[in-house]
Amino acid sequence: MKSTLKKAGYSRVQKQMHDVFLQFTSKVVFFIIIMFAFNLFFAGHYTPGGGFVGGLLAASALILLLIAYDRKTLFKMIPIDYRLIITTGLFLSLAVPTLSFLFGTPFLTHQHTYLQLPVLGEIPLHSALLFDLGVFLTVAGTTLLMIALIEGEES
To answer: Which residues constitute the domain of residue 97?
Structure first.
């Protein structure tokens, strides 16, 4: 280890300072990326975005933490079961259009209504939101599972 640090031109103290800077910065950037991922997810009905892009951004935020920390530390911070996330996402993505089909509407026809909330007022509620949530979870879980398998550790 000493020879690797000396070859790179870093002393042990400089290496530790670099890790601390990377870890702190990754935590801050993680929240920025997650908030942007949720913004894209919720704006996907009216503007470009949605479950696929939001899921990729959420997975990239977690991959950033994986780069700054090791896998065990990331799992302690955010316990993730990739297979459960993928299964839940696939279930939602298939259940929403199937339920609309069973109620007599064409397959993948989305329904909407308005929900009256005390503080927020009237907000639209779309079945497409649940479908997009399924896509979000499936894409994020699959991306993270692929990274874990490439890393060589099975989750």
So the answer is: 2-151
